[in-house]
Amino acid sequence: MIFTDINRAINLLLNKEVVALPTETVYGLAGLGYDEQAVQHIYALKNRPQHNPLILHYACLEDTRTDVVWTPWAQHLAAACWPGPLTLVLSLTPTSRIPLAATGGLNSAAIRVPSHPMIQNILRALPGPLAAPSANLSGQLSPTTAAHVAKDLDVPILDGGPCVYGLESTILDGRTWPINILRPGALSVEDISTLLLGFQEPSVSDYAPGKGDAITTNPAPDIKVLCPGQLLAHYAPKKPLRLNATHIKDGEGLLAFGPPLLGANVCVQLSLEGNTTQAAANLFAALHQLDQSACQTIAVMPIPQTGLGCAINDRLLRACAAFAPATCSV
Length: 330
Ligand code: AMP
Ligand code: MG
Fold this sequence. Notes:
Elements: E1 2-3, H1 6-14, E2 19-21, E3 28-32, H2 36-46, E4 55-57, E5 68-69, H3 72-81, E6 86-92, H4 100-103, E7 108-112, H5 117-125, E8 130-131, H6 146-152, E9 157-158, E10 170-173, E11 181-183, H7 189-196, H8 221-226, E12 241-242, E13 252-257, E14 267-271, H9 276-292, E15 297-300, H10 309-321
Helix pairs in contact: 1-5
């Protein structure tokens, strides 16, 4: 059931039901964040492993204070970026109302303030945060339209149009300095550095997934420990991917970035002018489209590790790892 009335979504949520909502990153499968039953329902619907914690979405920074402990740099960055595609992992306060089920049993929580006007209005009408992972089955492609959600899940869906970023939020560990990027996402390393200018020496860790290494060596072990939910094989289409393609093989469809390679019978363009922000917005929709096309496998043209290219390559590596981890590198 797809609808556009936000009051209907609010009533369903207040009744402890789970609703798919638009955000500026991807569509989220949302339930009341303080309600254990709603949280468990989200895990069950997505078939998500219990140890993979959820992101809690708040109306504003002030509303988070009873649940998490802020560090100065994290607060500076959040104040500059929110509402927006930044998620921070922070320690829980002793008075936190977030159920253990939502944090995977950890003494920390991942939080963010989303900017999409629909979820913002909904959050302002609710008594607490929303827990909202992406509205897809665990491990599959993330949804960037209401129709994508409907392909995976039989839940009420609030349609807010295609997501502006089309890529998940960037997750940082807000407890420690220098910064650890737990998941590259819609806020680029360059943006983070700019937002921290003037605060103190910004030194964003040189986290560049897949930078010339075999995927089996990424992510680094400490990232795995800090971010238990960052499963390697993830974000996968139904068809195998071949990264860094410089020619087309028989039966392959093409995921193009810039002027396309010749010879593919199906070609979906991420960004003809080679713009990584535009490519990020198109990424999941393009993979959904190639999944439904006549091609057997997908060749992906090289994408630079600049701007949102880092997050795009992270998703492509994980998608590739679902099929043949040993062969994947960017
Ligand atoms: P998503 O898969 O988009 O719902 O994002 C949730 C991700 O945030 C999880 O997969 C974890 O990697 C990360 N995360 C959430 N909570 C925590 C936490 N307390 N500590 C570390 N990482 C977390
Ligand atoms: Mg997800």
